[in-house]
From TrEMBL:
DNA-binding region in chain numbering: 124-225
PROSITE patterns on file: OMPR_PHOB (PS51755), RESPONSE_REGULATORY (PS50110)
Protein name: Response regulatory domain-containing protein
GO biological process per UniProt: regulation of DNA-templated transcription
Native species: Oceanospirillum multiglobuliferum
Lineage, highest ranks first: Bacteria, Pseudomonadati, Pseudomonadota, Gammaproteobacteria, Oceanospirillales
Length: 230
């Protein structure tokens, strides 16, 4: 489990005094904290790649439910804790449906919030076990040896769909569909090979072998390295 100092928390709370109190408490425990008062401000920031999001539900503008859904879509592995005075069963079910991991009724004691963060950490994927870590917002790809390379949007999409596919492999037509290519084109396989080759070159810059994206004859391609996506 990562140390508190390695965790980046995204806190969204519109009540100024409560937000400041939580920031002070969490920072005192050695967490990294980025705090905002609205969903719009949080989404406009570069902090949506945080490890865990702590979200008030009743926010001005778009509410915490909307923000949780957006964060879950943008960063599938993010941990999400909702904090709210809305404690009816339907509210809780909605929270879990939009992607929350924990639903804590307000008022939340800071010590309980820390306990929930630590419990969630034990369930989050271990970034250090992956060969690569991909930041979807910046398109920055980091290897386990800390070397980094920036992917193009096309390369980022290709790596993502392979990393999220069953057994990390896709048929030609599946890749073409994900990448919005013409399935009926006579040059489909050639186009795919060119795109895969560009991704392979980026991966070899991180000291991965060319077989990190393996061609499966008569089938498609398989990713042979592990990727953690944020």
């Amino acid at each position: 489990m990562p140390a508190r100092s390695e965790l980046k928390l995204l806190l969204v709370e519109d009540h100024f005094a409560l937000r400041e109190m939580l920031v002070e408490y969490l920072v005192s425990l050695d967490y990294q904290v980025a705090a905002y008062e609205s969903a719009e401000d949080a989404l406009a920031s570069a902090d949506t790649d945080s490890s865990i999001a702590l979200l008030d539900v009743n926010l001005p503008g778009e509410d915490g439910m909307f923000l949780a859904q957006q964060l879950r879509q943008k960063t599938p592995n993010i941990g999400i804790i909702l904090m709210t005075v809305r404690n009816q069963l339907n509210d809780k079910l909605e929270g879990y449906n939009v992607g929350a991991d924990f639903y804590l009724p307000k008022p939340v004691a800071p010590q309980e919030l820390d306990a929930a963060i630590q419990a969630l950490c034990r369930r989050l994927p271990n970034q250090q076990s992956a060969d690569l870590v991909l930041n979807h917002v910046s398109q920055l790809l980091t290897a386990s040896n800390n070397q980094q390379v920036v992917l193009s949007a096309e390369e980022c999409r290709l790596l993502t769909v392979l990393a999220q596919a069953p057994k990390n492999q896709l048929e030609y037509w599946q890749l073409a569909d994900y990448l919005a290519l013409d399935l009926d084109s006579d040059t489909l396989k050639t186009t795919l090979e060119k795109r895969v080759s560009r991704l392979r070159r980026k991966l070899t810059q991180l000291d991965l072998p060319p077989t990190a994206v393996k061609a499966l004859r008569g089938f498609g391609y398989q990713l042979t390295c592990s990727v953690q996506i944020h």
